[in-house]
Amino acid sequence: MIEITNLSLSRDGVKILHDVSLRLPQGRLAAIIGPNGAGKSTLLHCMAGLLVPDHGQVYVNGQDIHALREQSRALILSLLTQSQGAVPRLSVRDLVAFGRWPHHRGRPGPADHAVIAEAMTRFDLDALAQRSVDSLSGGQRQRAFVAMAYAQSTPWMFLDEPLAALDPKYVRDIMDRLHNMTGPDSGQRSIALVLHDLSVAARYADFCIAMKDGRIVAAGPWREIVTSELLSDLYDTPLRLAELDGAPVVVGL
Amino acid sequence: MAERRLIALALALLGLCALFLLWNLRVPMGFILGLRAEKLAALVMVGAATGAATVIFQTIATNRLLTPGIVGFDALFIFTQTMLVLTLGGAGYAALADTAKFVVESALLMGAAMALFGILFRKGADDIIRMILTGVILGVLLRGLAGFAQRLLDPSEFAVVQQASIASFNAVNPDLLGIAAVVLACGLGVALWLAPRLDVAALGRVQARVLGLNHDRLVFVALGSVAALVAVSTALVGPITFLGLLAASFAHALLRDHRHIVLIPAAALMGAAILVAGQALFERLLGLQSALAVIVEFAGGLLFLALVLRRRAR
């Protein structure tokens, strides 16, 4: 469980998060949605302990995330940021192996190699193992970075716009894999991700955190709280939550 | 694979050292060998220190074009030299014992380098453009201040500063080599100790923190080691701006490996090999018609331009 209480954060004198409070249960795929500038990425970085708030606390599994040392934090949560820098000529296998760093601190053992191999297979990267990350397509590259976060074996995974610039095939591929990770065979990881594609969020997310102007407008199970009215108010434009061939979609009117 | 290439590079350096010592060796052999061995030690130490420091600096900056020299360290050296001569006077500066001068210069440079790097990396080097601009502008400011101070010097004092501003291996005091060797060995030791953490830091500050690395502490320790390596090697022979870029670029190109445990030694060996080979050719073939530093700066400057243009073309 993640528990956020009265979180406020300012940057360069501008308040970005206003008194945010939230309870996020475990084992869910939670979508953080909202218009540009709503504070979604800032909230995610705060939850990951990378940004220190002006006020308020973030408790992850009962531990104050900002009171933990980096190494302890890296065993609890992983974060995939919007822009990932890759070392020139770094192979896909070596990139995924970095996910084990918090566990071995430079001295990988057999257990680490086993997790890396499992992550490579799970994300269908075996054929690309020796390819340089620079040479991958956008979708393959994103899959490699998600595999690295997966290899970190943390109970919580945060992803900041993991679908940006991906075509529908890769969007589906990544989301299917992420959704499977919240299942029991992946140790029921808990995932929170910032999404702009509302149809994708409607299809995969089982928890919603709706943000606007640095505040949480609504938070709760997707099916219970997300309505056409909520989405229209959130984005200040008419939107409708509908169904197409049994799958939820969000369309602009 | 990378390890094999590293061994080949070490063997090549050994060959170059043998060539440097034995090529055109005439009587009195013992005396000439002694002189050459002292110069060889300076070449190897300066090359190794500069190469290793540059790889570490580039990793922290997550940019393979930057070197301590390019972001203002060399300007800092010239400024420090000028201020020392200005405050002590030409006679006072010349009267300083070589060892005392070397220790004072090294300590001043180390402290000033930490201050310079501290300014450049203040926000974690996330903004490369800001860092380059700050380094370049600080360099211009320091050169301007040094130029202004040099106008206050008399011609003989000015000549002292000019001489110190161009790297030379022909007048290295052998008494300083021992002190330099100890500091450089410590700097290289710290660099190798940091190697696994530097691998993670190469992914960028945010990703490194996500992976549990105390990035700010790593940057502080790594920059301390860089400051020690460049300060002592510069105080020993003078500044060679582009040597580090040459050594680090060739090491990356040769090894094609991201691990610093092999990259740092490779850049150190490469830096030493460039200087030893350059000095051997320059002394034995070109008959001391130019200064080694000038040739290194010329080749390094061309490489820098080529790297910048290649990046723009991509």
Task: Tell me what you see in this structure.
Chain A has helices at 40-47, 70-74, 92-98, 101-104, 110-122, 138-151, 168-181, 198-204, 222-225, 228-235; strands at 2-11, 14-24, 29-33, 55-60, 63-64, 77-80, 156-160, 190-194, 207-212, 215-221, 239-244, 247-252. With 253 residues, chain A is an alpha/beta fold. Chain A has 2 domains: 2-76 and 155-252, P-loop containing nucleotide triphosphate hydrolases (Rossmann fold, 3-Layer(aba) Sandwich); 85-153, no CATH class. In chain A, the strands form 3 sheets. Chain A has a 6-stranded mixed beta sheet, with helices on both faces. In chain A, strands 2-1-4-5 form a 4-stranded antiparallel beta sheet, with helices on one face. Chain A has a two-stranded antiparallel ribbon with strand order 11-12. Chain A is globular, with a radius of gyration of 18 Å. Chain B is an all-alpha fold. Chain B has one domain: ABC transporter involved in vitamin B12 uptake, BtuC, CATH 1.10.3470.10. The model of chain B has no long low-confidence stretch (mean pLDDT 86). Chains A and B meet through helix 2 of A and helix 7 and helix 8 of B.
Topology:
The complex is a heterodimer of chains A (253) and B (314).
Chain A: E1 2-11, E2 14-24, E3 29-33, H1 40-47, E4 55-60, E5 63-64, H2 70-74, E6 77-80, H3 92-98, H4 101-104, H5 110-122, H6 138-151, E7 156-160, H7 168-181, E8 190-194, H8 198-204, E9 207-212, E10 215-221, H9 222-225, H10 228-235, E11 239-244, E12 247-252
Parallel strand pairs in A: 3-8, 3-9, 6-7, 7-8
Antiparallel strand pairs in A: 1-2, 1-4, 4-5, 9-10, 11-12
Chain B: H1 2-22, H2 29-61, H3 69-95, H4 98-120, H5 128-151, H6 155-165, H7 174-201, H8 205-210, H9 215-237, H10 243-255, H11 260-285, H12 292-313
Helix pairs in contact in B: 1-2, 1-11, 2-7, 2-9, 2-10, 2-11, 3-4, 3-5, 3-6, 4-9, 7-9, 7-11, 10-11
